[in-house]
């Protein structure tokens, strides 16, 4: 391992790999250290136990239009897109456990006044997220003083509209709208080109495409573009110490080894900053952010089946529940591989209660709910069931003990100008990751854009430093 480099990058997820590629292209030496035994961060594509293809433990979806950076890598590496199935009906379970179906692209079969109110709140979020004044002072700070739930109720959201927004935050964050800042949610919606686009599984939507080879294949392909030996796996940072007014850094690894560098890029999730001691301490604004942002409960439980039985009754595999424990599920099959699966999301309070059960109890609860959602006898679903796979993030310290990305509660982001926390370095230390972007926050595309932005800042500072010498 090189003990002295121009740039040390902590984390070999998409943002760290993108930063490394740009630093390398600019002719600077670098090392990436990664605590895990693999690259990819929260892209983690795992083979089914029966060998019939892969399923995604982490990030799963992209598209070929407005997520241009990620898609360009898919093309570069010759990866095979799988179009998300939206042909058929969506299953909807109410709080009382009663289920009905409606066509994809339509709305649940609720009372007319409830549906109208749901549409009004959706349109309000859409319009507010697209209004640039939302993110300027003083409106910015006003919105950050409220939870998302408080804001929509003040705007006239009735019980059904609140339930619907809760379903959104469950699916996107694993949190309730009473947990997150209204401003933070509106920034998320803005970056994904609106709440409707973030929720859309069709063309241009956030859930339009999956990859037959798995989303982690992009990270693996990026790693192969870097010099041999430049990525050090199973190397966790323990401490980062600045010297000479932030022009030199010593990073100590958990095993006691050290690396010196002129600059450091930190490419890990906000809650995982707790694994590293920074000296001097991070500035108050960033320390408050990394201490306050949090994950909800968010678990993927992937049910593997012999056939896509839900399609035989005209269902597309998308389901949503206001009751739980399953909040929603999607068809994550790859038909060409006979890889048939429903990915179920267990989130927030119902997810925590489910997570505390034994493995047999978890399985029974999911299969019972799947049978109810798709109108089949539980015995018929069990006959189709092969086994399950479950995401590891709740137990992963390097992810910060959660998934998909951390969100700010009220009072954390509003006093800063739009994008200030995202772009602000600390001496010669730069911060990147899918949380730290105004474009596609929480998505693979956002991670790549953040990595490129951080590398550009660093390279500009190195050029300025050289010009002064």
In words, what does this structure look like?
Its cofactor is FAD. It holds the Pfam family Amino_oxidase. Belongs to the flavin monoamine oxidase family. 34% of the residues lie in helices and 21% in strands. By secondary structure, it is an alpha/beta fold. Among the domains are: 4-41 and 216-282 and 426-468, FAD/NAD(P)-binding domain; 44-104 and 205-214 and 296-398, Polyamine Oxidase, Chain A, domain 2. Helix 3 (112-130) crosses helix 6 (159-173), helix 3 (112-130) crosses helix 7 and helix 12 crosses helix 13 (378-384). It is globular, with a radius of gyration of 22 Å. The two termini are 29 Å apart.
Name its key features:
FAD; Polyamine Oxidase, Chain A, domain 2; eight-stranded mixed beta sheet; alpha/beta; FAD/NAD-bd_sf; 469 residues; EC 1.4.3.-; FAD/NAD(P)-binding domain
Main beta-sheet strand count, sense and barrel state:
8 strands, mixed
Oligomer: single chain
Individual helix count: 15
pLDDT < 50 stretches: none
Query: What Rg is obtained from the alpha carbons, in whole angstroms?
Result: 22 Å
Number of strands: 19
Distance between the termini: 29 Å
Structural class: alpha/beta
Helix content: 25-40%
What is the CATH C-level name of the domain at 44-104 and 205-214 and 296-398?
A: Alpha Beta
CATH topology of the domain at 44-104 and 205-214 and 296-398: Polyamine Oxidase, Chain A, domain 2
**Per CATH, which architecture of the domain at 44-104 and 205-214 and 296-398?**
Alpha-Beta Complex
**Shape descriptor:** globular
Amount of beta strand: 15-25%
Q: Report mean pLDDT, rounded to a whole number.
A: 97
């Amino acid at each position: 391992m090189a003990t002295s480099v121009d740039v040390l990058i902590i984390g070999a997820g998409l943002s760290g790999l993108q930063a490394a590629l740009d630093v390398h292209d600019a002719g600077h030496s670098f090392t990436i250290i990664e605590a895990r035994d693999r690259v990819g961060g929260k892209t983690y594509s795992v083979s089914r136990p029966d060998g019939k293809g892969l399923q995604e433990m982490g990030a799963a979806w992209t598209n070929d239009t407005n997520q241009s950076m990620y898609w360009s890598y898919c093309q570069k590496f010759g990866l095979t897109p799988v179009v998300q199935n939206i042909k058929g009906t969506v299953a909807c379970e109410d709080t009382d456990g009663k289920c009905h179906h409606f066509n994809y692209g339509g709305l649940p079969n609720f009372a007319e006044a409830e549906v109208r109110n749901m549409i009004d709140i959706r349109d309000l979020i859409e319009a507010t997220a697209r209004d640039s004044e939302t993110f300027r002072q003083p409106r910015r700070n006003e919105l950050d003083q409220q939870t998302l739930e408080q804001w929509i109720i003040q705007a006239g959201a009735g019980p059904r509209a609140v339930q619907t927004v809760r379903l959104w935050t469950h699916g996107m964050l694993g949190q309730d709208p009473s947990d997150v800042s209204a401003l933070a949610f509106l920034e998320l919606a803005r970056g994904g080109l609106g709440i409707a686009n973030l929720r859309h599984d069709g063309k241009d939507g956030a859930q339009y495409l999956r990859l037959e080879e798995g989303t982690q294949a992009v990270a693996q392909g990026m790693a192969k573009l870097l010099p041999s030996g430049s990525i050090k796996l199973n190397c966790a940072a323990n401490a980062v110490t600045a010297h000479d007014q932030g022009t030199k850094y010593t990073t100590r690894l958990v095993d006691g080894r050290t690396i010196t560098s002129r600059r450091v890029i930190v490419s890990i999730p906000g809650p995982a900053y707790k694994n590293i001691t920074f000296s001097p301490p991070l500035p108050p604004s960033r320390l408050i952010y990394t201490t306050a942002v949090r994950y909800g409960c968010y678990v993927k439980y992937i049910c593997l089946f012999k056939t896509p039985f839900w399609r035989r009754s005209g269902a597309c595999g998308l389901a949503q529940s206001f009751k739980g424990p399953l909040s929603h599920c999607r068809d994550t099959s790859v038909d060409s591989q006979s890889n048939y699966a429903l990915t179920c999301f267990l989130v927030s309070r119902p997810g925590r209660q489910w997570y505390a059960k034994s493995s047999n109890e978890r399985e029974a609860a999911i299969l019972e709910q799947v049978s109810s959602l798709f109108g089949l006898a539980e015995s018929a679903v069990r006959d189709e069931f092969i086994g399950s796979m479950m995401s590891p993030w709740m137990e992963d310290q390097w992810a910060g003990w959660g998934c998909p990305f951390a969100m700010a509660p009220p009072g954390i982001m509003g006093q800063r100008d739009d994008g200030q926390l995202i772009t602000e370095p600390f001496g010669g230390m730069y911060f990147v990751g899918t949380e730290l972007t105004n474009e596609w926050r929480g998505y693979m595309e956002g991670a790549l854009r953040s990595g490129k932005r951080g590398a550009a800042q660093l390279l500009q500072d190195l050029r300025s430093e050289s010009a002064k010498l």
